[in-house]
Design the sequence.
């Protein structure tokens, strides 16, 4: 299956959740078993040699493929969640995003110095969410970090926010 076919199956919803946003609906991407398998294969092939020990998924759309790729890589899964959801002691970051402001949290003991981490989310827009997630993961002192998105909105150039040594990759590219 081609990346073009996967790209074509993402549904664009204009002006959702607010006017001016071209919302990328990934539920249509996940509906087909072949496409779901293809996404999982692409993720697995991209990271299978990287010695990933933990996949970190960002609430909530990072929870769809995050655990799936963690299982295939033989890695653990760690959630980054919105405030009030994680029951144990947390560290947090506040950030602004394409629409609105938000705070995210991670359990303070979720990662250790030996971990090689893949942080996964559905979509890179301005990059605010992932920078906050990257900062949280770095605070926990891990060995190495990789960053992955299913979709990248290239015109917003969110990837320029990350240090050069961090490998940032996305499967499907959209202009906006
Ligand atoms: P950002 O922090 O600006 O990179 O925004 C990324 C987060 O917001 C991701 O978790 C996405 O789920 C969501 N998001 C932002 N823009 C869009 C969009 N155009 N379509 C779908 N989700 C979006």
Sequence:
């Amino acid at each position: 299956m081609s990346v073009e076919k996967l790209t074509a199956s993402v549904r664009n919803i204009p002006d959702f959740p607010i006017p001016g946003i071209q919302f990328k609906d990934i539920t249509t991407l996940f509906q087909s078993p072949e496409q779901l398998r293809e996404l999982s294969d692409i993720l697995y092939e991209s990271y299978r040699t990287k010695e990933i020990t933990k996949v970190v998924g960002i609430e909530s759309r990072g929870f769809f493929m995050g655990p799936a790729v963690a299982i295939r890589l033989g890695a653990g899964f760690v959630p980054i969640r919105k405030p009030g959801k994680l029951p144990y002691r947390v560290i947090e970051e506040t950030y602004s995003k394409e629409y609105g402001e938000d705070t995210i949290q991670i359990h303070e003991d979720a990662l250790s110095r030996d971990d090689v981490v893949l942080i996964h989310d559905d979509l890179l827009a301005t990059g605010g969410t992932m920078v906050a997630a990257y900062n949280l993961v770095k605070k926990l002192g891990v060995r190495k970090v990789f960053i992955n998105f299913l979709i990248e909105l290239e015109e917003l150039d969110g990837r320029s926010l990350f240090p050069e040594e961090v490998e940032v990759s996305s499967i499907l590219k959209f202009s906006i």
Remarks:
- The pocket of adenosine monophosphate is lined by residues 21-24, 58, 61, 97-98, 121-129, 158 (CB under 6 Å).
- The CA atoms of residues 15 and 37 lie 30 Å apart.
